Amino acid sequence: MTSFLKLFQQLQCELGEAALPLNPEAQLPQGLILSQALHPELSKDAAMLIFKYNRCGNLLDPISLYPTLDALGSLKAQISQGSRTDIDAIRFIEDMGCLVTQLLPDPNIESLGDTEISEISSQNMAFNRWTGV
User: Fold this and answer.
1) What is the distance, to the nearest Å, from the Cα of residue 95 to the centroid of all Cα atoms in its chain?
2) Which candidate, 105, 90, 6, places its Cα nearest to that of 46?
3) pLDDT at 112
4) Buried b vs exposed e over 108-128: b needs ≥16 C-beta within 10 Å?
5) Distance CA 43, CA 38 (A)
6) 25: left (phi over 0), alpha (psi -120 to 50) or beta
7) Are 4 and 59 in contact (CB under 8 A)?
8) Residues 14, 75, 45, CA angle at the centre, nearest 5°?
9) Sign of CA dihedral 74, 25, 62, 37
10) Which among 20, 10, 23, 37 is positioned nearest to 100, based on CA atoms?
11) pTM of the complete model beyond 0.85
12) Residue 64: pLDDT above 50?
């Protein structure tokens, strides 16, 4: 199972260090994202919500797909409700959501005898559930 910290390290690799710089000394989620991030407050809010929705007690606690997507969906809804919607911020959260569906396993997809559902199908199903498509 993927830990909270491991997910953010993987997100940093995929999004780039400039977009999501991490503090290797961090002990709590609010200190994990450095202020030089592309969207510093948004990234910190995402980290805090993912930590909270997964009921983590520390950075090494395991996380799962659906609470993580719920956290990102909640943040996206907060951003969208503002009087001035920031399209770049929404795109950043959506990019994080797409990556999360690739990085975290879907617990509802199981092997069906000799036939296994492909990884791409499970990722698409998880993303579609998250976005309501």
Assistant:
1) 9
2) 90
3) 41
4) ebeeeeeeeeeeeebbeebbe
5) 8
6) alpha
7) yes
8) 70
9) positive
10) 10
11) no
12) yes
Distance of alpha carbon 119 from alpha carbon 116, whole angstroms: 9
- The count of other CB atoms within 10 Å of the CB of residue 50 is 25
Q: Cα separation of 67 and 61, whole Å? A: 13
Spatial CA neighbour of 62 closest among 108, 104, 121: 104
Q: Which amino acid is at 41?
A: E
Separation between Cα atoms, residue 88 and residue 20, nearest integer Å: 14
Backbone torsions φ then ψ of 33, nearest 5 degrees: -90, 125
State residue 128's pLDDT score.
58
Alpha helices in the chain (DSSP H): 4-15, 40-53, 65-80, 87-103, 119-131
**Lookup: tokens for 7:** 């997910």
